[in-house]
Protein 1
Amino acid sequence: MRFSSPAELERYREKLRTGYDPSQPYIAICGGTGCLALGSAEVRQAFEEAISKNGLKVKVRMKFTGCHGFCEKGPLVVIHPQENLYVSVKPKDVLEILEKTVEQGEVLENLLYKDPLTKEKIARESEVPFYKHQKRLVFGMNGMIDPQSIDDYIRIGGYSALSKALYQMSPEQIISEVKKANLRGRGGGGFPAGVKWETCREAHGDIRYVIINADEGDPGAYMDRSLLEGNPHSVLEGMIIGAYAIAYGVSPVQGYIYVRHEYPLAVQYFTKAVETARKYGLLGKNILGKEGFNFDIQINQGGGAFVCGESSALMASLEGKPGEPRAKYVHTVHKGIYNQPSNLNNVETWANVPLIINNGADWYRAMGTEGSKGTKIFSLVGKINNTGLVEVPMGITLREIVYEIGGGIRGGKKFKAVQTGGPSGGCIPESMLDLPVDYDELTKVGSMMGSGGMIVMDEDTCMVDVARYFLDFLKGESCGKCTPCREGIKQVLTILNRICEGGGEEKDLARLEELGNAIHDCALCALGGTAANPLLTTLKYFRSEYETHIRDKKCPAGVCRALVVYEIDAEKCTGCMACAKQCPQNAITGEKKKPHILDQSKCIKCGICYTTCKFDAVIRK
Amino acid sequence: MDKKELEQIVERYNRSQGQIIAILHEIQDQERYLPENDLRYVAEKLNMPVAQIYHIATFYKAFSLKPKGRHICNVCMGTACHVRGAPLVLEELERKLGIKAGDTTPDMEYSITTVNCLGACALGPVVVVGKDYYGNMTPAKVERMLKEIKAKSNGGAKTKVQSEPDEDDDSTGEEKSTQEITAPQSEVKNEKVVEAKEEPEPKPSSVKKEREKKSSKKFSKPSSKKIAGAKKKGGKK
Amino acid sequence: MEQENKILQVKINDKPVSVQYGTTVLEAAKKIGVEIPTLCYHPALEAYGVCRVCIVEMKRGKRSRIVTSCNYPIQEDGLEFFTNTERIQRDRKIVIEMLLARCWDSPVIREFAAKFGIYDTDLEKTKNEQCMLCGLCVNVCRDLIGQSAITFESRGVDRKTVVPFHKPSDACIGCGACAYVCPTGCIKLENLPQERVIERWQSELPLLTCKICGKGFGTARQLEILKEKNPLTRLYLTTCPECREKELAEKMIKQGGVL
């Protein structure tokens, strides 16, 4: 079935829609990574078995969808049309769900989300605070479609933007619309996509390349993965529109997607999307019947290199070379792959395009701040209650995200910082929680939007250790080409390690700043260029923690093990043996009902006894 | 690998230098490492200098020039797992196996590798071995995890073990799934949550289709089509 | 393209200079006698831009940016470059310190650092390392000689120049270009009576001996390759440069000043 005109596509869409009864019960089982890791595949199996064994009294539709976002509460199951959300579903709950909820519309209280503060149980997905405060435009359809079905995508309106772009707009008009909408790169750079497209179109070259950057390397960020696994066609459609705008009438155009090796499912689903799109005439020659618009896409994988998320390194990798960046004094949009004009955008950026084309730049501009329009997907992780993927309008404050959507800090602990922008970003302290999510606002305070990783940290997080963690990460990922990144990060890390092990000296802080600034100024690429951010922001906002490590040889958060001592208070110890059982080193000895003894020579400072003891008998100094 | 197989792989990728990474992944998936002779042969077939293929094989951390162990323990070192204590888990694992991350035990049974974020942050700290996810890991659970891996590989009975988040996670007062677990309360066992894909199942090639057929995992084709033959009235679409 | 023939006006240290579109800052500076220190730069090769010693401060309106002069192409009018601002001095000093810490055992790097008043550093020093990873050896072998006998391995702090698999390479022709371009002299080339040895690459190649004086003057492989790429006379392939010159001179004299 090849669509050779928008009319054919619309007829097909109509057919799909009439064949779809929205009042029919529909079971959406979340198959995103988080839920999978919590057992949603078994839940799905249970559903399938139950249905095939017992049959059902009603016609029902069931889909194993992409990520719904509320990873903390997985496995997630949503029953439509009533939009009944069930959390932490187990295979043994399945029969009851089918009998009571699906067949009779009854709500099962024990599977509902319970608000920890109000203790209220909430049945409707959209009323759960986690979802209520979000604006799920890009991510929203994940729960309604089977990511492997192009028909599902078409039914909900897919490829209508492509139709409009090819037949009702010129390439220049498309670029103008995307510029007007001020869609900025969602991979972290925040560069205006429309301007990039325009520059690429006007550059000199015999062929143009259009690329999806799916290398998503920031640890703790998995938005792009969930988009590719949940709604791959949305990304593909955006890219095809982009290819048209950039190259139609100017030169041949070829597409690439570069996916991290650690995402095999994303590769699988996107490959399927590409194959079915080809079959439907939405890729290949004369796309949707548009004479002369030929475009196809090759799927490339990464080999485990964070630096390949950098555009010039990614392009080197696509050429079959080691993924080393090069100077970008001549931008890749002018000379990229094989020295031809190449337009690279992030997965989420591409997924925004069909929305802008369908709804218009004005609609898009109505959301967000002056400089940052639309929505952004964040992966909210760390010491937060509601771990998951959230999509919020630009301009929302960090406080709202952490407390209203995130539900506050795990275990009732005190908030300390939120880290955005991954290893290129910085830590934002409590005093700045009212900062709006905005490219420029975040950059002003020394951090950056980044690809969307938002790591929440509490009183038990050591900020010196956080700086050390990121620099250690970058040390392993540096390509090693240029002196400041290769040698500089190593030297900074040496000093940080020394500080965390009790060897800090007064002059260290000034030296760290000096080295950090030189790395920032002189590095060859953005990996090195932003490597100092975690260090410099923690120095700026948490200097006292560094000073405590250096002067007092103590780690206030109790993380740096060389600076922490655990002791058992004999007076409080009840002799319950709980800590002794948990100690991985068998460093605690003692009999029942007698105070226990902690052998310091065996203690590895893991802190398990501290968190296990219910009597506050373990002291951390 | 024999030359014919190598040639087939290279042909499948149209002898394209740009697909070198995919080609090397296929070789490594089968051989558990990249043998020197295979690399030299592929370089020849692709018209690529040996120096270049060598740099590529040593540049990308997914590749190994030395054979890996049968069980690769992949410890997630992502930021979320880090703030929840992943380094301690890694250290304990290194202690128990007597090797450092990146190495393999002399009997070629275990390798330890680290990876930056698997996207299962709600479960952190996470260790993945093959297709099994071990979530909410602590140093104390490492030994049990290793025992389970051994039991599984010796064809032991499927130990359907459950996991509970550590007790300190409960203190928000939220109802956690710990309530529903049937394991005796004094023991804290590890959950083996089975996810279909962290390892090489899906590949863009015909080899993949064969492998999927062999896989007994139901998840390999998640789609609504499975219920087509259901007894209920009418189809499900 | 039209713009590639444009002449642009820029300033270096407040001195005006006209350059063709695409000229690097380093080349422009040379034109007006402004010296910028370099380490990994070699005029015969495309600038790799990795040592970061040749940095300059570029001002465009109110904005300022640090760029490497060896490979920054001038593409617009009105740019201003400064080679020795306080910021540059600070940054350059740190970069050189980092190199010094790495190549503490390299007399060449120590001498270079001394020129900037840097005799020691509190940074952690590496032992027995003389290679500064400038890439000249790898690049000359690949781009100029066309043999790609050597390469980098791994990445980050583990990055090293090596011969693939740490085994002698069939592609090495023993031409010695790598040793010739190496700024620190850490690639040692030795001409034994019958062989040329480049220890770093485990290369041992037989030398051709001069038919006149008997001295070894080039590896057989090297001459083979040269022959493939260039029309060479028998004289070139059988005599060492000194004897060849003498022969040619004598020939010229015999033929009355004409060859």
Protein 2
Amino acid sequence: MKNNILILPSIIFFLILSIFLYLLIIDRNPSEIPSNLLNKNTPIFEAKSLFKNEKFISANEFKDEIILVNFFATWCKPCRDEHVYIQRFADEKDLKIIGINYKDNNKKAIKWLEDLGNPYENVLIDKKGKIAIDWGVYGIPETFIINSNGIIMYRNVGPITNKIYKKINLIINKNE
Amino acid sequence: MNSLILRKITLITITFCITQFFLNTSYSVEPDEILNNPKYELRARNISKNIRCMVCQNQSIDESNAPLAKDLRILIREKIKEGNKDEEIYAFLTDRYGDFILLKPPLNSKTLFLWLLPIIFLILGAYTIFYHNKKSR
């Protein structure tokens, strides 16, 4: 009889234990935070361009086509690692890519793009990191996919790897 | 002699523990960030203490040295100077980073289970103890 009383708490205890175990086993990164901007409109902002003289006004840009937005900096080693994939998106998919140069030196950024190739249709300057905050960025590189309605479809925190490259390709193909 | 040393060590240890207990938080606010208006500064500090550093994740932006934490501290102070209310500042941050940026999760449909879990455990524990004692008698 005494044992019967302990059945319910024991079941609950093992249930909670199994949930924790499941969370440990599944393929997930607990430090990765889902973006609050997913399925929402792109943030409204204005920025100076690294190469163009005209001001970038987000409301005029994020429409009519799929756009990839990539936050990068020359001082960020993973940005260099993923650059080859950003270049592949520009070459193979003919995708419009907007680079946002985060807390960087303009001269260094120009030199970096000359050396590694420039896959960006436009490079925006985010000297103080304010645009990054508007996008909910917390660690660069970060990449966003925006559909033709200006809605954020996907966000990747960290460098693009082969696996993520394929995943992004699938999302682009689905939305084309 | 030995007991005297032991007493001294105990006294030092206790003093150290008490001091650590009251001074266990370090702050990262830099002098150039501090606002001239003490009321505004106090508001900024209070908000900062509730905002999670997204880089370190287990510290508030008030305690964190991460560059993003500093950017957010400055942003909060700018928003206060612009005349924004505390709720508006919290809304600005959660719109961009989600509820995760709040160190204390708000009570809503997604977090209901989290908030109710301690109460459920309390009831279960009380139920078990109560019936266990009753049966033992």
